[in-house]
Amino acid sequence: MQLTSQQLFDKLMEYGIVGQKGEINFILKDLSIKITSRDTVGNLIQDWLKQWMMTEHIEFEVNDNSQVFPDIYLDKHNKKLGLLEIKTFDFDRGPGFDIANFDAYCNSLLTSAYRIDSDYLIIGYKMTGHEITIADVWLKKIWEIASSSEKYPIKVQEKKSIIYNIRPNKWYSTRNRFSSFASKESFLKALNETRYQYPATHFNNAHWLNNVRNNYATHTGVELIID
What we know:
Strand content: 15-25%
Radius of gyration: 19 Å
CATH topology: ECO RV Endonuclease, Chain A
Strand order of the largest sheet: 1-9-8-6-5-4
Shape: globular
Structural class: alpha+beta
CATH class: Alpha Beta
Helix content: 25-40%
Number of strands: 11
Distance between the termini: 41 Å
Number of helices: 6
Order of helices and strands: HEEEHEEEEHEEEEHHH
């Protein structure tokens, strides 16, 4: 059956995933060991989710290139809809994943602006020894997990004055200094202002936002109003 991201999320919550416990074991020949390293947890949770979707007869297609957005297509017939990214993180340490590569994401919006409407299924887990507990699960849009920062209008990962990735805020916390963006329009405006402020994109940024707006209208028929 074909589901939207929201229907998939609702079904996962009805399944009762939050609070459930699991463990990681590795078996080679006649020796079984319990895994306590967090290095593989994210990938294993994603693999479990895909297997669960198959068990539930949910229609989806996995992206052949795991390094390219999105992780999953929920609509195999229209690759502009049902784009789903899966993110996992250690709940006790906070969201340490990258939302997207800064340059690649900005460039992708010039030709595939519908990507901004993609959904992010985010799974927070806790790990004690080899036991994993699903702490919480969220379904979010990109602007709902992004925020401003002290330096840039968009929170980013920057090393030696080079921006690499767009980074998430703690969207689930009430103690954030910077709140999540309220809309895709405010997110795009902040992204554009960051490009203007960032020296590497400052001089070729004049038409970026208008080009993104035009591309979004071409794909969706919707005009974005950005002050």
